[in-house]
Amino acid sequence: MKNYVDGNLEAMATIPFSLTSPEFIENPYPFYDKLRSISPIYWGNSVKYPGWYVTGYKEAVAILKDTRFENRIPLPQTSKKYEHLKNLQNDMLLFKNKVDHKRLRTLVSKLFAPNVVESYRPNIEETVNELLNEVQNEKRMDLVSDFAFPFASLIIAKILGVPVEERHQFKEWTVDLIQTIDFTRTRRSLADGNDTIRILIDYFRELIEKRKLNPQNDLISLLMKEEQQGDKLSNEELLATCILLVIAGHETTVNLITNSILSLLTHPEQLVELKESPLLIEKAVEEFLRYESPTQMTARIASEDIEINGMTIKKGEQVYILLGAANRDPKKFNNANVLDITRNPNPHIAFGYGIHFCLGSSLARLEAQIAIQTLLQRLHNLQMATPDLQWRKLTGFRALKELPITFN
Ligand code: HEM
Asked: N or C: which end of the chain has fewer CB within 10 A?
């Protein structure tokens, strides 16, 4: 028997849920509560995903800020099959550690600072209004495919500098991408994501070459120029950064907007409150991030034996940090399972914590605030068109397949 659990025999049990079971996908929160009540760090002997499951807030923060827990590429290192995807991921900020991470993060972070992001406001407002113009008279839409998805895709495309005439095609490519960072994906979904990555690599290579010859005021040109103490992004790092921004910044934003509107529709009194007090929007978005966290889980691997909560996590063991569970830990949040758009303070970790804290958090916040507020201002009598909702089987993410709504 391994000696990773000191005195906590219960924690040796088989994990009492499957990450892919229909009950868990539909509503993971009772499972999180159960797990946390047994132990905030729990050894799950799941055949498919053995590892430590972290549901406690304090424990999640402790692990995320400890750089001995590393963020590694979620691909079998021996597999030759996804070679180019692995090579690309090698150059991604998300999968770098320690000094290598610091170097890359320094080269890109200035371009995501709140003052830079604020300059995107007019562009974001225009995009929201254009999309709403298209559906306003229809009196119904699927919030995911008619609004949130094209919105998030258009914004990241505009910011990166994808030309107008190529943005529709770009949106189509983004559909399968999220699979490439879902570490529990199936072979088929990985293959789909892999094919799209190949197309996107070629596309961005060409765009980068064009911007080298003719720089514009877009993120690709700015990233190319960015220099810190004589150091610059290499061509491959620039390419990997562009693709990471599309992967990390797209689906998550779609889900934040969709989950926020769902939370309001299921709490009509808070919808009324937000309509009457639009200044609450910033607090409300923080609460949507906490209550239905778009990224429910991230993972780390212990680079050495590490003591935590009296247990030893052994070198090489996998740790699953359930952000969606930490954000509902009653030890940290009063009435943790209750939505409260006035909650203050709200130290959720929906954007992660520590060195990998979301680079695009200011952008995501601004996008969500503008999108939700404009939606509430322009579409009246918002209702769910059906109570039957389906969540996507996308492990680690809280993503509705569709959200049909009606309005006047
Ligand atoms: C990292 C969530 C939007 C770019 C992360 C992490 C989380 C997260 C949890 C940390 C992952 C880890 O520690 O393993 C979210 C959520 C978003 C969002 C919930 C929207 C609601 C965006 C946007 C962008 C972006 C809009 C950029 C356009 C990134 C990047 C990283 C990251 C580049 C890696 C940072 C690093 O490794 O240093 N995000 N994200 N994200 N996010 Fe976001």
From this structure: N
